Amino acid sequence: MKLTKMPILIIYGDNISTKHSKVLNEEVWRISLQNAKTFVNEINKNGGDATLIELPKVGLHGNTHAAFADLNNKEVLKVMTDWLAEKGLSRSDRPHTGQKNLIVRLRSHWSSRSFVEKTRQFHKIRQLERQLWHKQNL
């Protein structure tokens, strides 16, 4: 089962009804949370590593279904980054280097190119280097 090979994180905000409701939107989220709990249990029962975090249970309140856009999004980010670190997925020891990394990769493929490809690649590298310089110096 492929889903048991990678850690899975599911996050829910609050104001989710715990009782059956005749209001469609309330019922959708109640059922969705139930399904998420079932999903996490099944994955974990089959040797996987799934985590369901209900934000109110970790002290964060007032979140919608778009927690990344809510006013307390930095606190939600902390919950997520803590989980990533716990799973060894944070990459804080080797952060993404952006365009600088792309320039190094482009240069490493230099020798196997034709003259026309080298010229195009050279101009692309120069353009990326100028953009990177402007970002760092302005």
Model description:
The chain has helices at 24-45, 73-86, 99-108, 115-137; strands at residues 8-12, 50-54. The protein is mostly helical and 138 residues long. A two-stranded parallel ribbon has the order 1-2. α3 packs antiparallel against α4 (115-137). The protein is elongated, with a radius of gyration of 23 Å. It starts with 7 loop residues before the first strand and ends with a helix. The mean pLDDT is 81.
Quick recap:
The protein is mainly alpha-helical. The protein has helices at 24-45, 73-86, 99-108, 115-137, and strands at residues 8-12, 50-54.
Write the layout of secondary structure elements.
Blueprint: E1 8-12, H1 24-45, E2 50-54, H2 73-86, H3 99-108, H4 115-137
Parallel strand pairs: 1-2
**How large, in whole angstroms, is the Cα Rg?**
23 Å
Q: Decide which structural class fits the backbone.
A: mainly alpha
- In percent, how helical is the residue content? 40-55%
| Weakly predicted, low-confidence segments | none
Q: How many beta-strand segments? A: 2
Whole-number mean pLDDT: 81
Strand order within the widest sheet? Answer: 1-2
Which outline best applies? elongated
Please identify the oligomeric state: single chain
How far apart, in Å, are the first and last alpha carbons?
50 Å
Query: Helix count?
Result: 4
The proportion of residues in beta strands is 5-15%
